[in-house]
Structures are given as structure tokens and as C-alpha cells.
Design a protein that fits this description.
Chain A has 37 helices and 16 strands. Chain A is of the alpha+beta class. In chain A, strands 1, 11, 12, 13, 14, 15 and 16 form a seven-stranded antiparallel beta sheet that branches. In chain A, strands 2-3-4-8-6 form a five-stranded antiparallel beta sheet, with no helix packed on it. Chain A has a four-stranded antiparallel beta sheet with strand order 7-5-9-10, with no helix packed on it. Chain B is of the alpha+beta class. Chain B has helices at 29-38, 76-94, 99-104, 106-116, 127-133, 139-148, 240-246; strands spanning 2-8, 14-19, 48-50, 55-61, 64-70, 117-118, 121-122, 179-192, 198-212, 219-222, 231-234, 248-251, 256-265, 275-283, 289-297, 308-313, 322-325, 329-333, 338-344, 353-357. The radius of gyration of chain B is 25 Å and the shape is globular. The relative contact order of chain B is 0.08. The chains are: A alpha+beta, B alpha+beta. Chain B: Keywords: Cytoplasmic vesicle, Golgi apparatus, Membrane, Protein transport, Transport.
Chain lengths: 867, 358
């Protein structure tokens, strides 16, 4: 089989697609067929038709899994805290080791050039109108991208939730699966998963599942409030699932266990029997996880036995009574008495539990229950169901041993057997197990291996040589190309550049070199390739010099080699034109033209087709330079609900105004802080025409008014939003609000410093470089002793989010928390670092170009952390 | 990939089938019917059903089920998206998609399916190309064909060269009047709790175009404030790079109607909800209850709210409603238990109100 080599046409015709498909179907593991075409495929991806995109993306995912190393390998090992100090010590001991290890670590942080190429070229496809393309990219990112970059797909997936019902179902399935692994990804979009009454049941259940997975200490209150409304829904299956979801939240999040339990207990008095029954089952599970001190609940449930008819619930109650009979010594035997009366008419599952209860009670309290037990057991002996008859015979041996076996071991240890503490059930998502399947595949949806499904290969420990992809004449990353040229020209050069690598690798490179030579000889007309390379080079001369310079600064470890490399290169560039003028001037033959058509971006002028994304992009060097462009605005991690009264009803003649900072960008201008004003009419007359009549702003500030409220009826509340550009200062603005009846009131708004900042995210290395630029006067730091109850990082993060609008930057060091934001007006960076010291102290440092803001923010954070 | 397609009507008959590879017996649909019996309404039908040898992937649109049969692993969204595209094409060709229309145009439908899927892989799904290959039915042509006795369709297909380089636009388009229309449609989705405060609100918007321009026009569309868009998706004709760098939509449009882009404005922004609904509903044990609903405008920036329709799903216990609206008409469907109240324009002076017993 040969993969199509001529992607010269802009649209991928079906023939070629079919060939790819044949490749996928016939020999999914023959990745060697893709090598040559990899870069071409990546670059052309945008221009292929939608259906082709899906197939190619899937193929590239598999390919990339075999060719590149795991980008998240650091994070995985980073959790292993014990290793770190050990490494550090080691590093101090000998310097040689240090440099080598440092180099290794650094390498792991940086992606292979081709890996990066794939990620970059698939990203725009998230904007496709075709849901399956979006899903394809999402799964590619999920399986291949570094953790910090996977976030980009969340938004697109959320968009798909507006699509057809069937699409929703598949997408929600995938989100549910992702959310068991990475809560953070979908947390900002929590509200998108709120259930609508119009959703069909299976969508509702999926949304519920996701909400439960996403619940954290901070969001739990919102989620629980939602769940409460769901319980009043008239969709029975959904209500049951909602109650179970509450149970799962309660057992996962310790803070709310008690309030959830209380809520569930209050549901026990619900009119709907199904609700009661479901809550009984959930309460049973919850009590099992923390059985201390819930006597009253058990008593309450014991009373319910008389009313509940759902067998599952009855069985749960009986089990509970048996398990905790020592807490309710008086009630349990009584319940047993009642059950003995109705034994015959019970369901099987209840009968089994009655037997169970009888045995347990007999063991703890034989005096009162012996007769009851005998009665129940003789009823069970003649039951219609053989399972119950068997069980009765089995249990009887424990408590009423037959003659001659009085002292049998079983009877002696009966107490230990029956009254042993049982491990609590673990309530977890049923989507946990699905991780083994490729996201978005049919097998993933049905949770079983479909016909013809192949597991996604694991990342290799070490990446195979990337040069296999170089074989085709012009390769996009300039570095590799230059290497190859050297191979053609001067053999010694290639091995020279690799000399610093260990000996065994040397052999490998030699082998490689031979390989590539062979290839060139095999090509019919190697000269043309040569010409091509030259042409390319000429065009890109300047660019390359820049890029090589850039890569130099980036890869410090390999700096020396690079330098020699590039200087050599420059030399060559000088010498080359003289040598090569003749072949370059040759009239172009057909083959030459064909090759040129075949070529990737630079030599080709884009014609006709729009969406020529791939063609219009200049080829960038493989290692993405970290630029300020990678600073992205992020959504706020916390939205304050605290309101401040600006105008009370006495001075406002019945009108009250509350203000709240929404932390969302204002529609009018991004540098404005949006402030939500809530107007409430507490007077006895309608208030009309509420508007801003006069504003008194300090210089440099601007204010965007809210829309006129034409009328505000009595006891009604209406919101209005104003936007203020505070020009990065905390000076108050005052404005006058007038109403139709002629009253006017002066309001003064003074922003907390934390609201003048907008959350941004950036990669960690960029954070560190930016931070190092803002030392000295621009840095404010302080050691703060935390109150004793700060147990976790999350608490600290939460307080910082409350103090200011910043976003967390995932940190590789577990003892350091990093947050980033930028000021609204001047867009200068605000970097907050919290280092955890021993004995409950933390070192907070704030780096900001504007010193005043830095110091004010530090004070603000300190006061928030102490409160 | 996709082996076969069955179309099933609301009464459970397989009235059309199409096989791209080997013929798969109709009996495979029995698994589908089994599942259908388990769920209460067609909306609840799971989109994917795994049977021992086949996988049934279905969509429900226009009161019909379109069931695709696959034999091997395939991305489910791929099939679902394709099926929706098929229905979209039918709607585009026949201006509506119902059982009777499909039966009426069996020939065209089979031709379309043949063209859209080749050996199980999607081939031509762009309506511009399809219309080039298969002419949409129209009355004039039907009459002409019957009179002249010619076959319905031209024997000569357009040569490959005639198909344009831009896959979504046909060549040689000519209009005497060049015009382009853009519709901006916005939908606000909101969840409002019992007390009337907004729990969650988001905007989903679409830009639908009707472009009638000659030749190969290259258009650009810029926005006053593109920052507002949280997330966008485009027709394939839009150049991604231009959007990423300059926030400008630059595209060569297809001919005729199409959806240029859709966008999403999420909950982080302030979403103004144009109306509010005040309600009081009470049910008595004995049966019957009272209902009182008032609608009023809210944050409309001085514009009037027009053609308001309110849909209220009622609990199963409700048998009938006798209500008196002071404006508009209402209807109650006792099968689906949905009360629909067509209000019309909202007049601020006299707020529309609906009250009565249920």
C-alpha cells in the first residue's frame, strides 16, 4: 500500500481519502506509511473537506501516540513528592550530573517540533461547523496535548451542547468521562450543565453525572441548590438520579455531608413515595460512610417501615437497623416483630433482609428475640423461593446449631462474622472505567470494545527518531532541514553536531545518515531535490537566521552546538550561491514543476481557495517561542456575591441601590470594570426614569452609564450595569442618580484594588520569566502566618480569588501557588506567588509594574488571608 | 463506515432503505423497535444501540427516525452529523422533509443518497455541488418532462472540469441583480428560578445568509465589537487565519442560502432577558387548580416585544384547561400536555394575562 503522495490539489478527493481509509482498515499499525506524509497532512488539514478531516485527525492521533513522548510525564511524576528533594541533593553533589538532568527535564517540557505542528494545525478546526471534526480535535488534544493546553477544547465542546439532541448525548458522554479525570477543565462552564425541563431524560441524567463530577467545595452550594429544584421535577427517573447525585456529593465533599444528610432526611417526609424510597437508599449508603451519631435518623427511618412499600427502601431500612441495632436496642426488636407478621407478603429482597436482621438481633439480644427468630426461620424454611430457603438453612446453623454441633467453630465466631464492621461503599462515577477507550469513539460510547476497535497505543518511553519524517524533500522546520542538507553536502558535519551525545547514539546517527543517503540515491533525480532545497533556502534566508537565533536562546543546554551549527550554516549560505548558480538557473523540467507543486507552503502561492489556513501561515520554527501572545484572558475563578449598599431607603426616598462587582468584562470597553447596580423600590409609589444625571470623575476616568430604567414598580427589583474605567487607581467615583419625581442622590463607588485586575493565564515558564523582569522595586513580599484552619491549598487559593480577580497558573512545584492577572486600564501584569513555608507560614509576593498597585494588593491579600 | 440506512416513520414502518455495501436484512431494525418500546417518547431514544453484530446509530427528525447501520468502530458523531446533513439536504431540495414528500420523490432521494455516500464514506455533501449533479425538482420541469416524454434527468453529467475549484461554490453563477442578505438570529437561553432571579443565561446567535452574487465574489465582514463572541463556528468557506489574526470574516460564499457562522455568548457576560413571566399556580388534591400568568417586558431598551409565544409543559395529571386570556389565543394539547399561549405584541399599558382553572 502506498499512501497518496500528491496532495497537490487543494481539496482531498475521495480517492485519496479512501486510500487513507484502506490504510486504517487494513494495516492500522503500519505507521511507517505515514512518516513521509506526516507534515504534509498536518499542513493541509485545514483545507481537506470535513469528512476527510475527521478521518485524518483520527489517524494522526494514533500516529502521534506512537511517535511522541507523553507531554504530561512531568506532572505524573511530579506528584511523587518524595523524589524531589532526593534529586536536588543529587544535583548538588556533582555538577556534570546536574547539567545532564536539567537538560533532560527541560527537554521534556518542550514538545517535539512535529508534535507542536500537529497541535497548532488542528486548533483552528475547533471552529468547524461539523460536530465530529470538533470532537476529533477535542480527543486529539485530550490524548496528546500537555495538560495546560487541553483547556482550549472545553469552550468548543460547550458550544456543541446547543446542537441536536443526538450530538448532545455523545458530547456529554465524553465530557462526563473527561470530568472524572480533570475537574478544572469544565468548572468555569458549570452552569452550562444545568438541566432544562425540555431535555430528554438521558440527557438530564448525563448532565447530572457531570455536575456531580464537577462539584467542589466552592461550587457545591450552587450545585446543591440546583439539585433541590430537580427533586420537584415530575420525571421519576431523573428525580431518583438527582437524589443519588446528592448522596454522591455528600460522600465526596466532607464539608457538606451533614447538610446533605439533613436535606435527605427532610425528603423522607416528602409526599412522593419514590422520592422517599430513593432517599432511604441513599441515606443508608451515607450512614455507612460515617455511622457515628445518627441515632435520630435511624429511629426516624425505623418509623417509616410502616409506610414505605418500595422493596429496595424497606430492605435498606432493615439492613440499617440490623447493623446499628446497638444504638436503638428497643426499636429494632419491635421492627422485627412487625416484619415477622408481614413476612409472607414481602418481596424476596426484603425477606432476605428480615432473616439478616433476625440473626443480628439474636446475636446481640437473644433474650427478647429468640422466639421471633425461630418463627421467622420456620417461615423461611417453607418459602417458595429456593434462595430464601437456602439462606435460612445456612443462617440457622449459626444461631440454632443442630444437635451434636453445639460447639462448632462457626457458632462461636458468629458474632465476629455478622457484626464485623463493613467497609463503606465507594460512591464514584460510572464513567471512571471508560478511560481505557479512545474518547469520542463508538466503543467509548457503548463502553465495550466495538468490532474493529484498536486500543490507542501508549506513549513510547523515548520518542523514535524524528528524522524519519524528514525524508520528503522540503520539511517545514528549518532546523531539521538544514541538518539534512549538511548530510548531503558534507557527511562529517552531521555527525559532528551529534558528537556530544553518548556513544551508542552516535552509532544510531551514523545509521541514520546512511539511511538518508540511501534515500537520496534512491530518488530518481536527487539533483532536483537539491535545487528545491536551495530555492527554499534562498527565500527563507533571513527568516532562518532569526529563528536559529531564537532557538539558541531557548535551548540553553544545546547552546554551543547550536552556535557552531548556525555559524556553519551561515558560512555555507555564503559559499553556496557560488556553487549552485548553475543548477538553479536550469530551465525547469516537468518533474521539477511537479515537485514544486508537491511542496509545502513557502514556495507555493495560494490561489482561489479561501480557508487556506495552512498555506497562509508562515512556517515557524519547531519550538514555539514563548511570547506575550501566550498570555490569555481567563474567566474569573470566583465571582463575588457580596453586595454593598450605596443608597439606603431613607436617604433615597424609598429607592435602595446595591452594588456588586461582577468581574466580567464590560461590553463597552475591555478596560472598564463592570459594576452591577440593583435598584429596589421600597416606597409606596412607582419610581420612574431612574438615570445617571451627573457624574463627577477624577481625571483619566470614564464611565459608561446604565440604560434608563423607565419605571420601577413597588417592591420590584431591577438591575442596571455601569462600566467604569478607573484608570488603575482606587480613587472613588461619584455619580448622581435622579428619578422622575425629581429626587437626586449622590452615590460614591470606591473599588477594592482586587477588582481592577483581570484574570489571565499563561504557561508557567513565561510566568517565571515575567516575574524575573519585575524584581526590585516592583516586588512586594511578606511572610504571613496563617490562622490554624488553613488546611489546604484550596483554602488559600479561595481567599486569594476573593481578594482579587486572578487566575491560577498550574505550578510544577507543589509548595508554590502562582496566580496571574493584568490591570484593566494599562494591561500591566500582576503576578502573585504564594510559597508555603513550614509552621503555617506563607510567603506572599506580588510583582507588578505599578508599585502602588502591588503594595495595595499585597495588603488586600494579607487582610483576606487573615480574616 | 455506514453500511445501510433505514428510514422509519412514526408508526414504526420501515418505508425506505438504502444499502451502500451488502444488503443487511430489515430485521436488524427489530433491536431498534425493542428499544423504542422501552422509552416513553421518541426524544428519549438513545442515539446509539449496540446489537451483537451491528451498531445502530439513529437520529430523530421531522417525526421520522433515520437509522444508520454500521459494522465496525466509527466515530459516532461522524455518522450523526452525516445523517443530519442528509436531512438538511432533503429540506433544502424539497423545502420540507416529511414521509409523504420522501415517498413522492423516491428517485431523487435515492440519487441524492448515492451521491452523498460512496461505499460508506461521505462524498459530496455541499448543496451547491449536489445541485449541479442532481437538479432539484420543480413543477415546470416536471410538466415539460411529461409533455416531451423525456426522462426527468439529464443523461450528461457535468464534466469534472466544470465543477469549481472552490468546493462549495458552483461556477458560472450569473445574476442580473446582485444582492446579499444577512439575517442575524439570536436565541437567549435562560434558567430562571422560582423567585424570578436568573440562574443562568446565555446567547446563541447565527448569521444566516442569502447570497446572490455573480462570479467568484470574495467578501469580508467585520464586527464592531468581536470581543463579545465567546466562541464561534464557521462555514468551511471562512478563512480561519484571517479571523484569528484580525477578527474579520473573509470568505467566498456559496451560492444561495447557507449559515455563515454561529456564535455563543456565555454566562460570563451580562445577558439581557427581554421579558419576564409572573405566575401563580396551585393544584388541589381533589383535582383542578388555578393558574394565573402575567407577562411583561424587561430590559428592552425602548423597543416593543413582538410575537411572544409561551409554552408551558403541564404535569400529567392535567386533563384540560379552561382559561381566559386578555390578549392572544391559547391552545392545550391533551396528548403532549403542552399549553401554548400565543400572546403577540406586549403592550406595556395593559400587560397580557392568562387566568382560569385547569
Amino acid at each position: 500500500y502506498k499512501l497518496p503522495n500528491d496532495f497537490d490539489k487543494l481539496t482531498c478527493t475521495t480517492d485519496k481519502l479512501k486510500q487513507i481509509n484502506i490504510n486504517i482498515e487494513v494495516c492500522p499499525e503500519r505507521i511507517d506509511l505515514i512518516h513521509k506524509n506526516y507534515r504534509k497532512l498536518c499542513n493541509l488539514l485545514v483545507d481537506v473537506d470535513e469528512w476527510g478531516q475527521v478521518i485524518i485527525i483520527n489517524m494522526l492521533t494514533r500516529y502521534a501516540r506512537t511517535q511522541f513522548t507523553n507531554p504530561n510525564i512531568n506532572e505524573d511524576s511530579g506528584e511523587d513528592l518524595n523524589n524531589k528533594p532526593f534529586y536536588d541533593e543529587d544535583d548538588d553533589e556533582d555538577d556534570d550530573d546536574d547539567s545532564e538532568k536539567g537538560g533532560k527535564r527541560k527537554k521534556k517540557l518542550m514538545l517535539d517540533g512535529d508534535h507542536r505542528l500537529l497541535l497548532r494545525n488542528t486548533k483552528p478546526l475547533l471552529q468547524s461547523r461539523n460536530a465530529s471534526v470538533v470532537m476529533g480535535v477535542a480527543q486529539l488534544y485530550h490524548h496528546l496535548a500537555p495538560r495546560s493546553e487541553v483547556m482550549v477544547v472545553a469552550k468548543a465542546l460547550i458550544r456543541l451542547l446547543r446542537s441536536h439532541r443526538e450530538v448532545q448525548s455523545v458530547v456529554l458522554n465524553c465530557i462526563a468521562s473527561i470530568s472524572t479525570l480533570h475537574k478544572g477543565m469544565f468548572e468555569p462552564f458549570l452552569k452550562s450543565f444545568f438541566v432544562r425541563t425540555s431535555d430528554p431524560t438521558h440527557i438530564k441524567l448525563l448532565k447530572l453525572e457531570i455536575l456531580t463530577n464537577l462539584a467542589t467545595e466552592t461550587s457545591i452550594s450552587v450545585i446543591l441548590r440546583e439539585f433541590q429544584t430537580y427533586i420537584s421535577s415530575h420525571d421519576k427517573e431523573f428525580v431518583a438520579a438527582a437524589i443519588q447525585a446528592i448522596g454522591r456529593c455528600a460522600s465526596n465533599i466532607k464539608e457538606v455531608t451533614d447538610s446533605c444528610l439533613n436535606g435527605l432526611v427532610s425528603l423522607l417526609s416528602n409526599r412522593d413515595e419514590a422520592v422517599v424510597a430513593e432517599s432511604v437508599v441513599v441515606i443508608k449508603k451515607l450512614l455507612q460512610t460515617q455511622p457515628n451519631e445518627h441515632k435520630d435518623i435511624i429511629i426516624h427511618m425505623a418509623k417509616l417501615v410502616d409506610f414505605i412499600t418500595v422493596p429496595q427502601a424497606r430492605a435498606s431500612i432493615l439492613w440499617l437497623l440490623g447493623e446499628y441495632s446497638d444504638r436503638v436496642p428497643k426499636i429494632a426488636p419491635d421492627v422485627l416483630r412487625k416484619m415477622a407478621k408481614t413476612f409472607i407478603s414481602e418481596e424476596d429482597i426484603v425477606k432476605l433482609q428480615i432473616l439478616n436482621l433476625a440473626v443480628k438481633l439474636y446475636l446481640t439480644n437473644p433474650k427478647q428475640t429468640k422466639l421471633l427468630c425461630q418463627y421467622v426461620f420456620s417461615l423461611a424454611r417453607y418459602d417458595q423461593n429456593y434462595d430464601i430457603r437456602d439462606r435460612a438453612r445456612f443462617l440457622r446453623q449459626f444461631i440454632f446449631p443442630s444437635a451434636g454441633y453445639d460447639n462448632s467453630r462457626l457458632a462461636k465466631h458468629a458474632k465476629k462474622i455478622f457484626l464485623a464492621t463493613k467497609p463503606a461503599p465507594v460512591l464514584e462515577s460510572k464513567f471512571k472505567a471508560r478511560e481505557q477507550f479512545q474518547l469520542g469513539s463508538l466503543s467509548h460510547y457503548i463502553n465495550a470494545s466495538a468490532n474493529g476497535y484498536h486500543d490507542l497505543p501508549n506513549f513510547p518511553e523515548t520518542a523514535p527518531e524524528s528524522s524519519v519524517r524528514d525524508v520528503e524533500p522540503p520539511a517545514p522546520p528549518p532546523e531539521t532541514r538544514s541538518k539534512k542538507q549538511h548530510t548531503v553536502k558534507k557527511h562529517s558535519f552531521y555527525s559532528e553536531s551529534e558528537q556530544s551525545s553518548p556513544a551508542d547514539e552516535d552509532a544510531g546517527s551514523l545509521h541514520n545518515q546512511l539511511n538518508s543517503e540511501c534515500v537520496f540515491i534512491n530518488e530518481e533525480n536527487s539533483e532536483f531535490i537539491y535545487v528545491m532545497c536551495y530555492l527554499q533556502k534562498k527565500k527563507k534566508n533571513k527568516k532562518k537566521e532569526e529563528s536559529s537565533a531564537e532557538s539558541e536562546s531557548e535551548e540553553e543546554t544545546s547552546g554551543e552546538e547550536e552556535e557552531s551549527d548556525s555559524s556553519d550554516e551561515k558560512n555555507k549560505q555564503k559559499t553556496k550561491p557560488a556553487e549552485d548558480t548553475t543548477p538553479a538557473a536550469k530551465p525547469k523540467t516537468n518533474l521539477d514543476l511537479l515537485l514544486e507543486l508537491d511542496d509545502v507552503p513557502p514556495t507555493m502561492t495560494p490561489v482561489l481557495t479561501p480557508s487556506l489556513g495552512g498555506f497562509l501561515t508562515p512556517v515557524t520554527n519547531p519550538v514555539m517561542p514563548i511570547t506575550p501572545a501566550s498570555i490569555q484572558l481567563a474567566s474569573p475563578s470566583f465571582i463575588p456575591m457580596k453586595t454593598q449598599e450605596l443608597l439606603n431607603k431613607i436617604s433615597g426616598h424609598g429607592l435602595t441601590v446595591l452594588s456588586r462587582f461582577t468581574r466580567s468584562p464590560h461590553l463597552f470597553s475591555p478596560s472598564m470594570v463592570s459594576i452591577e447596580l440593583t435598584f429596589t423600590n421600597l416606597s409606596s409609589d412607582e419610581i420612574s426614569d431612574i438615570q445617571v444625571s451627573n457624574k463627577n470623575l477624577p481625571p483619566g476616568m470614564t464611565l459608561h452609564e446604565f440604560a434608563i430604567i423607565s419605571s420601577l414598580p413597588v417592591n420590584m427589583t431591577l438591575p442596571g450595569t455601569i462600566g467604569v474605567d478607573f484608570n488603575d487607581s482606587t480613587q472613588p467615583v461619584s455619580l448622581t442618580i435622579s428619578t422622575g419625581s425629581g429626587n437626586s442622590n449622590q452615590l460614591t463607588i470606591k473599588p477594592p484594588i482586587g477588582e481592577l485586575i483581570r484574570a489571565v493565564t499563561m504557561p508557567e515558564p513565561l510566568f517565571i520569566t515575567e516575574q524575573s523582569k519585575l524584581r526590585g522595586m516592583n516586588e512586594h513580599s511578606e511572610v504571613v502566618t496563617l490562622p490554624a484552619y488553613y488546611s489546604e491549598h484550596k483554602m488559600i487559593s479561595q481567599h486569594i480569588y476573593e481578594a482579587c480577580n486572578v487566575a491560577n497558573i498550574p505550578s510544577t512545584d507543589p509548595k508554590t501557588l502562582r496566580f496571574a492577572g493584568q490591570t484593566l486600564s494599562s494591561k500591566s501584569l500582576v503576578l502573585v506567588t504564594v510559597k508555603l513555608l513550614d509552621n503555617e507560614q506563607v510567603n506572599i509576593s506580588v510583582n507588578c509594574e505599578k508599585m502602588v498597585i502591588g503594595s495595595m494588593l499585597l495588603n488586600e491579600i494579607r487582610s483576606h488571608l487573615r480574616s | 463506515m455506514i453500511h445501510s440506512l433505514f428510514i422509519i416513520n412514526s408508526s414504526g414502518d420501515v418505508f425506505m432503505e438504502k444499502h451502500w455495501k451488502s444488503v443487511i436484512s430489515r430485521s436488524v431494525c427489530d433491536y431498534f423497535f425493542d428499544q423504542q418500546r422501552k422509552v416513553a417518547n421518541p426524544e428519549d431514544m438513545p442515539p446509539i444501540i449496540a446489537t451483537p453484530h451491528h451498531y445502530l446509530i439513529s437520529i430523530h427528525r421531522c417525526c421520522m427516525f433515520f437509522v444508520a447501520v454500521c459494522m465496525t468502530e466509527v466515530p459516532p458523531l461522524f455518522v450523526i452529523e452525516f445523517l443530519h446533513r442528509v436531512v438538511d439536504t432533503f429540506e433544502d431540495y424539497f423545502s420540507d422533509c416529511t414521509e409523504s414528500i420522501i415517498k413522492e420523490h423516491y428517485v431523487v432521494v435515492y440519487e441524492l443518497l448515492d451521491e452523498m455516500l460512496d461505499n460508506g464514506f461521505p462524498l459530496a455533501t455541499e448543496s451547491n455541488i449536489l445541485k449541479e449533479l442532481i437538479k432539484p425538482p420543480n413543477i415546470l420541469r416536471t410538466i415539460a418532462n411529461t409533455v416531451t416524454g423525456k426522462s426527468k434527468h439529464p443523461f450528461v453529467l457535468p464534466a469534472i472540469g466544470q465543477l469549481s475549484n472552490v468546493p462549495w461554490r458552483r461556477t458560472g453563477v450569473k445574476y442580473t441583480n446582485n444582492e446579499a442578505y444577512f439575517d442575524v438570529v439570536e436565541e437567549v437561553d435562560a434558567i430562571i428560578d422560582k423567585s424570578g432571579s436568573t440562574v443562568f443565561a446565555e446567547i446563541q446567535g447565527y448569521i444566516d445568509c442569502c447570497i446572490k452574487l455573480s462570479g467568484m465574489p470574495d467578501l469580508t465582514l467585520s464586527f464592531m465589537n468581536p470581543r463579545l463572541f465567546d466562541d464561534v463556528s464557521f462555514h468551511p468557506c471562512v478563512r480561519f487565519k484571517r479571523w484569528e489574526s484580525e477578527r474579520i470574516l473573509s470568505f467566498i460564499p456559496p451560492d444561495g442560502n447557507f449559515r455563515l457562522m454561529s456564535y455563543h455568548i456565555g454566562s460570563q457576560n451580562i445577558v439581557a432577558i427581554p421579558i419576564y413571566v409572573r405566575h401563580s399556580i396551585s393544584f388541589r388534591e381533589a383535582g383542578g387548580g388555578r393558574l394565573d400568568i402575567t407577562v411583561g417586558p424587561k430590559q428592552t431598551i425602548g423597543r416593543t416585544v413582538e410575537s411572544v409565544i409561551i409554552e408551558i409543559p403541564m404535569p400529567k395529571a392535567v386533563l384540560n384547561c379552561s382559561l381566559i386570556p386578555n390578549q392572544g389565543k391559547y391552545s392545550f394539547d391533551p396528548v403532549s400536555k403542552v399549553l401554548i399561549w400565543d400572546v403577540g405584541r406586549i403592550d406595556i399599558a395593559k400587560l397580557p394575562n392568562l387566568r382560569g382553572t385547569v
